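Please discuss these two lines.
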Amino acid sequence: MTPQEILRIRELVACVGAKIQPQLHPHAALATRNAFAHLWLGISTRFGDRWRECAVATEVEAFVEWIGAHPNDEYEAFPGPTTCNEVRSVPDEPSLFD
């Protein structure tokens, strides 16, 4: 993903997080809910920890917007695609086994 795409996602998370904060239901394991943490956790859960390197930006944006419309649903309920094109190492890079 390009730096501009990541910036666009950060701005979208800030906007959606501010909107859904008062809508989040209480959670038994948390004293208070943090909408921004909820969004970032959802992104890493659905797209993987390396989402910045391998996810499709439009899919991540669609996921964040979906959470904005369904703030208390489980991440797995997202109906859209969550493609993560794994980044392969360049052949010239040494591996752990070289």
